[in-house]
Automatic annotation (TrEMBL):
Belongs to the major facilitator superfamily. Sugar transporter (TC 2.A.1.1) family. Gene3D superfamilies: MFS general substrate transporter like domains (1.20.1250.20). It is found in: Lysosome membrane. It comes from Chinchilla lanigera (Long-tailed chinchilla). The lineage of its organism: Eukaryota, Metazoa, Chordata, Craniata, Vertebrata. GO terms for cellular component: lysosomal membrane. It is a multi-pass membrane protein. GO terms for molecular function: transmembrane transporter activity. PROSITE patterns: MFS (PS50850), SUGAR_TRANSPORT_1 (PS00216), SUGAR_TRANSPORT_2 (PS00217). This is Solute carrier family 2, facilitated glucose transporter member 6. Signal peptide: none annotated. The gene is SLC2A6.
Length: 508
């Protein structure tokens, strides 16, 4: 049975009660207390909207560019793999930059800074006259996405009260999904250049709104700006009296003071420091190995290469809508069901979906005649393959349904909860650097998968990646059971004290 997040008394540890601790008689919990937190969260997660939009930009654009009449923009298989995957290289660089910017500029200013490469990247893709402009624009939007991916979850977790942190922790993933769905929907209406133009809007709205939001009280306290931190916390808790937040402020202040110095290499060897970092890193690694990024990036081309009943662009839009609905369900249940239950359910659904997709591709009807002997360098996407086979039965709904279940499973657990747990369990003293490291590892893994996906498909068949992703989902189930702690209803200070005890029980 999952042991509650409680600990024994000790020199650096306060026993946690079974329910959330009361902040004192003057506090006003509930929705009213969180209204301004919701506003600040919305302003920040607009950066995730742009991230989700940019991530799947290639899904409708690759089929359009394969048919381009301009030889400078027409993509071969290898060029398409670079166009799809270079975003993840940019995201890795953004995560690496976040290791510095998160603690140097602060969470809020780092998110606002991401607007610069994002706006430039969209402009380059909108006015692209050659492949290099497409690739550079894609890399810049990836850099912005990697930066926001490391900064936004930390900002949201540090401003949210424990009672709504699970729900708010799902909003970065929710907005990324909404951004992806918006791209799929607009892809049915707009040419590919105007899709890039439309991506500029949320970036400017994010900067405008964030300019009125406070910085994280924890970050301000770490910089010795106590009065500003108290004002920020008072504003976020929607109260005019600083006494209403005094208990919470003192808890945060004590934790920040205890960890005011930077982490040394010797301290990293301490279990209470490396265990949460290692758990967060492995979760981000496994999250990518489930196949989410290549499936999203190449969603429409995947449907193009399988026998499907509906047009591929309609399938992509349907999957985007299912993904949005699933993240909404996760946001509503995360603070009720708990993190681990949703992770188990998520990995199980993804395993079944990936296995089904692999079996369908291997034994089901063929849409294209596979030709593994044609050179990748000179073969346009769809240029030498036979035309799509005419679907003859409802069996051809399997790819759509399996992909919908995969996206549903991911969006209910391993999507939002991985981001949330990263921001919850990382030690405050190492949170800025460690979150950037997590994003770096995540996107380097995504680059390797996305770059190789089309090449592996061409050499061995589309079923091979899906069988690999299914195996990783089984590994994720074991990892969740052995290593992931339950953090539902606990403050960040309680979670950190929990790891500090050095007990092994959090693994069970």
């Amino acid at each position: 049975m999952q042991e509650p997040l409680l600990g024994a008394e000790g020199r650096d540890y306060d026993t946690f009660p079974e329910g959330p601790q009361s902040p004192g008689p003057g506090a006003r919990p509930g929705v009213l207390q969180s209204k301004k937190v919701f506003l600040a969260t919305f302003a920040a997660v607009l950066g995730n909207f742009s991230f989700g939009y940019a991530l799947v930009y290639t899904s409708p654009v690759i089929p359009a560019l394969e048919r381009s009449s301009d030889p400078d923009l027409r993509l071969t298989k290898t060029q398409a793999s670079w166009f799809g995957s270079i975003f993840t290289l940019g995201a890795a660089a953004g995560g690496l930059s976040a290791m510095l910017l998160n603690d140097l500029l602060g969470r809020k200013l780092s998110i606002m800074f991401s607007a610069v490469p994002s706006a430039i990247g969209y402009a380059l893709m909108a006015g692209a006259q050659g492949l290099w402009m497409l690739l550079l624009g894609r890399m810049l939007t990836g850099f912005a996405g990697g930066l926001t991916a490391a900064c936004i979850p930390v900002y949201v977790s540090e401003i949210a009260p424990p009672g709504v942190r699970g729900a708010l922790g799902a909003t970065p993933q929710l907005m990324a999904v909404f951004g992806s769905l918006s791209l799929y929907a607009l892809g049915l209406l707009l040419p590919w250049r105007w899709l890039a133009v439309a991506g500029e809007g949320p970036v400017f709205i994010m900067v405008l709104l964030l300019s009125f939001m406070p910085n994280s009280p924890r970050f301000l306290l770490s910089r010795g700006r106590e009065e500003e931190a108290l004002r920020a916390l008072t504003w976020l808790r929607h109260t005019a009296d600083t006494q209403d937040v005094r208990w919470e402020f003192e808890q945060i202040q004590n934790n920040v003071q205890r960890q005011s110095s930077r982490v040394s290499l010797a301290e990293v060897r301490d279990p209470h420091m490396y265990r949460p970092i290692l758990i967060a890193l492995l979760m981000r690694f496994l999250q990518q190995l489930t196949g989410i990024t290549p499936i999203l990036v190449y969603l429409q081309p995947i449907f193009d290469s399988t026998a499907v009943l509906l047009p591929p662009e309609d399938d992509a839009a349907i999957v985007g809508a299912v993904r949005l609905l699933s993240v909404l369900i996760a946001a509503l249940t995360m603070d009720l069901a708990g993190r681990k239950v949703l992770l188990f359910v998520s990995a199980t659904i993804m395993f079944a979906a990936n296995l089904t997709l692999g079996l369908y591709v291997r034994f089901g009807p063929r849409a294209l005649a596979h030709n593994g002997t044609v050179g990748l360098e000179n073969m346009p996407l769809g240029g030498t393959e036979q035309p799509l086979a005419t679907p003859t039965s409802y069996l051809t709904l399997v790819p759509l349904l399996a992909t919908m279940f995969f996206i549903m499973g991911y969006a209910m657990g391993w999507g939002p909860i991985t981001w949330l747990l990263m921001s919850e369990i990382l030690p405050l003293r190492a949170r800025g650097v460690a979150s950037g490291l997590c994003v770096l590892v995540s996107w380097l893994t995504a680059f390797a998968l996305t770059k190789s996906f089309l090449l592996v498909e061409n050499a061995f068949g589309l079923q091979v990646p899906f069988f690999f992703f299914a195996a990783i989902c089984l590994v994720s189930l074991v990892f969740t059971g052995c290593c992931v702690p339950e953090t539902k209803g606990r403050s960040l200070e309680q979670i950190e004290s929990y790891f500090r005890t050095g007990r092994r029980s959090f693994l069970h």
